[in-house]
Amino acid sequence: MTITLMARRSGRLGRALAFRDKSAMTSPASAADFDDAHAATRSVTRLSVGVALVLIALKAFALGASGSVSILATLADSALDLVASLGVFFAVRWAALPADEDHRYGHGKGEALAAMVQAGLVFASALFVGWEAVQRIFDPRPVTAGTWSVAVVLVSMALTGWLVWMQGRAIRRSDSLAIKADRSHYAADLASNVVVLIGVISGAFLSAPGLDAAAGLVISVWLFWGALTLLRTAADHLVDKALPEAARVTITTAVLADPRISGVHQLRTRMAGSVVMIQMHVDLDPGLTLDAAHAIVVEAENRLLAAFPRADILIHPDPRGRAESHGEAPADAGQDGLK
User: Helices (H), strands (E): how many in the chain?
Assistant: First the structure.
């Protein structure tokens, strides 16, 4: 029994040591680059949660003072923003975990899952706000404490605008899908706050509460469209949609810049969080030694990393004219022999 247990432990240890052998893996980018990107995403997610809490407190006060459906709409959205921001807070930390024995491609798709959750929450918010706005259109109610409401909306716009700017900085450093999703949501909030401001002013100072309800309806439509866009982007990552045609052309152009590579085929690309996964077969002179072929492939990988710094690349060399099918070829295998 003891011998069997030791053998199992030894097997697990052997697999772990083999995985930690960096020569067995392609490092998509320097550790410093990823550490900097992950630090940026962690910092901005903390900021996002803090801003959401402040906005909820401000809008709850304004709602109690005014009874505005526009304020109610943006309060509901901020409450869901908090839930979504918490999801992103944990998702980016999980997605930043390095590849391990059970997740050889890393954990990047955790960001796409967080974006899917965000989309669902925004859909729910859009339905709630839309229903309440329709109710108020048929049963208008006066908006009170307009000055307080306007002040809260203006402060909310300032905080949201600052957060969107900070998220933009983090995206430029990390290209994080989860942060992009969070940023698009808050950018929509910023625009919707303009509509809220119009609604509050109309209801409190122009004696036109119906416009307040109409503003809430506009916000619901805006939220629905934003959720749909977010859902589509997250789904593309989860179903391994290929990179756009322009990116694929950039990839093949970079690889074929070396005249010793005469063709590219079975090119496969997909996104895993902020990491670009690139796989392909290349045609080389069949008379090359293994060392020479390896050197050519490494140079091609470096050219790709210059264009896609956060890329995980796998290039399989084939002797020119003797390439064989390797499993299921992608539907766009017409790139065979691309020159």
Answer: 9, 3
